[in-house]
Amino acid sequence: MKMNGAVLVAVAAAIGNLLQGWDNATIAGAVLYIKREFHLESEPTIEGLIVATSLVGATLITTCSGPISDWLGRRPLLIISSVLYFVSGLVMLWSPNVYVLLLARLLDGFGIGLAVTLVPVYISETAPPEIRGLLNTLPQFTGSGGMFLSYCMVFGMSLMEAPSWRVMLGVLFIPSIIYFLLTVFFLPESPRWLVSKGRMLEAKKVLQKLRGREDVSG
């Protein structure tokens, strides 16, 4: 039985969690250089906000992502997540002051919140029962992988004469482009969501693609 379609879809979706892990680890290394540039040694509250704003954004968006995804679908919100990652990465790369950086971190948090909430749901709804448990470990695996890659990048940049926190944080926009392209051109809508909206024919076509066979009645 061919399961390649479902596996590839799950891997592509889990990139959203890789970006989340990447960002969470990067800010831990970048905040030291941010503090130096903006002279935040006597402003621990601002320093804490820079780290925590993305978590605030993620928390806020998760409170409404469920109902919105039930209304619009899983795929559109994954696309929005990739766009938020991209925009926040560019803004962090440019950030001329603390206030713009805080805005970028908030947008980044919105992207993170959508990804960590919807990727596991999306994988559960697209994965065959036989490998659903296995594929549902991907978000945790890719999140940890993103943290590892980020720590390697931060360590490498810390050896430079003048490490740039803007590059550390802003480089997020590069993998987010890949994530955006995959969500737009590769990921199908959740067949379960399609069935819930009465779009049976579309759901059948998606299942045939995911399962790699014509008969998806079982």
TrEMBL record:
UniProt keyword Transmembrane, yes or no: yes
Domain (Major facilitator superfamily (MFS) profile): residue spans on this chain: 9-218
InterPro entries per UniProt: MFS_dom, MFS_sugar_transport-like, MFS_trans_sf, Myo-inositol_Transporter, Sugar_transporter_CS
Superkingdom of the source species: Eukaryota
Keyword S-adenosyl-L-methionine assigned: no
Keyword set, alphabetical order: Membrane, Signal, Transmembrane, Transmembrane helix, Transport
Chief localization: membrane
Pfam families: Sugar_tr
Membrane-spanning ranges: 76-94, 100-123, 135-159, 165-187
Subcellular location: Membrane
Membrane topology of the entry: Multi-pass membrane protein
GO CC terms: membrane
Single GO molecular function: transmembrane transporter activity
Region forming the signal peptide: 1-21
SUPFAM superfamilies: MFS general substrate transporter
Family as reported in the entry's similarity comment: Belongs to the major facilitator superfamily. Sugar transporter (TC 2.A.1.1) family.
Listed name of the protein: Major facilitator superfamily (MFS) profile domain-containing protein
